[in-house]
Predict the 3D structure of the following.
Amino acid sequence: MARQTLIAGNWKMNGNREFINELMTGMKQQLDANWQSEVLVCAPAIYLPLVIDLTEDSGIKVGAQNLSHEAQGAFTGEISGAMLADTGCQYVLVGHSERRSLYGESSAMVADKFKAALDNGLVPVLCIGETLEERENDATMDVVKAQIDAVLDQYGVSTLAKGVIAYEPVWAIGTGVTASPEQAQQVHAEIREHLAQFDAQVADDMRILYGGSMNPTNAEQLLAQADIDGGLIGGASLKAEQFIAICKAAG
Ligand code: PGA
């Protein structure tokens, strides 16, 4: 089965009610009903109900940016997978590099979050990627494989198969420096080869998104690569025109 392209916006900690209303109105006006790609916006948790209301009947899917690995209880400030599912959202990012680097999330914890998402019927988007230093030390594949293996070792390939992978080189996130289509394709292909060692069908079916300074100018070439199945877009997802232009580049 051909892999359906997924274009996902990651709004991060941006926006307010007014901004979100405008952004969604802009997106809906420009969205073509005959959309081929799946379109997703990952909103700040507190605005999920608003975004879900605004996307009703639009075909745009809604996701969160993080969840607790715990199911419920005395975890002040945390949000569970069950709560996210209860609002009606369908996806959740796990292990975004900002969560790993700024909030100390280990790959083991990210694996537990991946599982917690699935346990609640949410599709986890497992974010992985190397720092510039790791790339310069030729450690890119070791790093991204270890981030994937944390899920594989703990929960197995059939669990991993239910999610999506987003390869986001840390040096490309929010920097305006994007991986070249060739650089990204190479990592995506090697990720798929790695998965194939566990299960060829899972490798073939797995959607692997690219993220890191994707914009309307570079999207088409990136998305044209054989193993790039979509994008995870930060900055450019906050502008309706740019985000829709990327969706259009996906075809
Ligand atoms: P960016 O962010 O598009 O602003 O680089 C991508 C991300 O962090 O998911």
